[in-house]
Amino acid sequence: QVQLVESGGGLVQAGGSLRLSCAASGNIFSINAMAWYRQAPGKQRELVADITSGGSTNYADSVKGRFTISRDNAKNTIYLQMNSLKPEDTAVYYCNFEGVRDYTGRTRGGYWGKGTLVTVSS
Question: Which three-class secondary structure string do you get for 7-53?
Answer without folding.
Answer: ECCEEEECCCCEEEEEEEEECCCEEEEEEEEEECCCCCCEEEEEECC
